[in-house]
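Hey all, sorry for the wall of text incoming. These are the two entities for the joint prediction.
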Amino acid sequence: MDQNHDDTSAFARVLLLIGSPRAFAVLVVLCAGLFVADFLYHKHPYFEVEEVPGFYAIYGLAVVAVFLVAARLLGGVLKRPEDYYAPNDVASEPYPDESRADG
Amino acid sequence: MVELVPPFLVYFLGAALLPLVPGAALRSALSLLVPVIGGWLIWTMPTGTHDVVTLMGVDLTLIRNDRLAAIFALVFSFAAFVSLVYAWHVRDRVQLVATLLYSGSAIGAVFAGDLITLFLFWEGTAIASVFLIWARGTEGAYHTGLRYLVIQVASGVILLSGAALFWRETGSLAFDQMTLGSPATWLIFIAFGIKCAFPLLHSWLPDAYPSATVTGSVVLSIFTTKLAVYALARGFAGTELLIWIGVVMALFPVIWGLIENDLRRVLAYSLIGQLGFLVVGIGIGGELAINGVAAHAVSSILYKSLLFMAVGAVLFRTGTARASDLGGLVRSMPLTALFCLVGSATIAAVPLFASFATKSMILSAAGYKGYEGAWLALVAAAGATVVYTGVKVPYCAFFGADSGRRPAEAPWNMLLAMGLGSAACIGIGVFPGAFFALLPYPMEYDVYTVAHVITQLQLVAFAVLAFVLARRFGYLPTETRSVVLDSDWLYRRVLARVIGGLAQGMSIAWAGGVRFQEAWLNRVILRLYRSHGPASRMAQSWPTGAMVQWVAILLAVMLFVTFLA
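and here's what came out:
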């Protein structure tokens, strides 16, 4: 709604930039820059694998991809309706109104 | 004798006296004095053992102060202060008392010099903290609290039996470095492991923590598990088994964290993941690793409570913490969003935030000692943490698809508490040297090397990139209202079904037995009735004067017996 839009403060609008397409472009440039930077300094690794240029970049990307796939697969197996354990569980309960306690 | 005021006493006195104070604001204000006085006592406390009291012939060491105990007690005090600021608006006296008793017990346990004192405070944390779950006041919270209490008390009972065996074995109750091997040490190890959420012993944590009140979850996230970390660091440093336990703990919660819809439950899983780092550090042992464990415990208390505060503020204002019901809240809660981002950056170990300085010590220790497998697993877990906590939580709550909700910004006290937490996260990240001076062992450790900054930024940036790309191509796990099964399914569903089935089988067998017995008895009675009843053949020969005849016989016997006598 327009009224809500006006309520959004300048500060909030700055934070909203994090989700913008421009931020994605910045992220891509940052990633590229960090990858290149890996060739420019002297390493003192604990293990050989760290000497691979861009090891942390490739490893980070791959790990997240693997976990996302695993989560998708397992999600299909492990998800149940919200009232699965009801009434012994809070998952399907509304959160009690705390303002009552203020009265 | 008691020569120093033990810090826990301040908390227990506060818990006893504060409920009597009229006026909620005054009560909240006075409650803040408790961790301040307690913290001051800890800061000025001389090292060594103090306050040895004799109880039923056993010497209890109430205070054993060294640098390892002091840093845990200090961060507990700070976190208690911050969570009391966060709970300023709460009028519920029960939660205030529970918070104070819980914090006091945790601090008491940290200073415990023997296993019996440790046990007493260990159970204290269990009993006090369950009221933070029950305070939610719903049927589900009641049942969840009971499950939590059973497991926590069981941990204490196992600790006590371990202590008893340990005393028989060694003749000592001192709580010091132990070697895993005898039944006694295994029992103590398992008792610590339950509170530390070891794999398969962990499911109480994501069950209970998200079921507490808004403020209760923040308090719960601070004490129990970090107390267990302290106990393991004190008792089992350098136990190699812990490295592999910790690796599993660091990795498996990633998947549950990615699937889970309730953001407080996501944080609970991520809490287990961070405990994994600490447990690996304890398993490695040595001065650098234990320094890393102490430092990273401090920073994980700070960012985890900060994230629980931010999601709690969302729950407080919107009534839900479900990712599927949230999104776009930054428009009306920008400050909460900012503090959440600080928490995210800290857990992601971005340079200039606390974890960058603290987590790296554990990784370095793994590197120096040549544990390549554990090191690779921890780097993987660190990369995944960036996504499943660091990005997912702020993305689902504050950014992402706009839910259309426009709740008010969090109340001032919550913002202040989150501000304090954020300041601490950034302070440690910017001035790690000053913080390192508080660690258990003196050390030379350079955090801000070019290689460390660039490699860590690479890990974070590419993990975020993976998340963004997955979102673009629709590969993120979908957030729907659901519960995600975990190992507690085994006892909440399978065991319940098995016991239910057994009970049903037993009752069927019992009913069958009873019916059989009745039928048999009926048959016997019927047969007797047929043969001896009034209408039976036997009855036909009953002489009318049968009774007279029997009396005559009895008289004859009597005469005979008397004559013989």
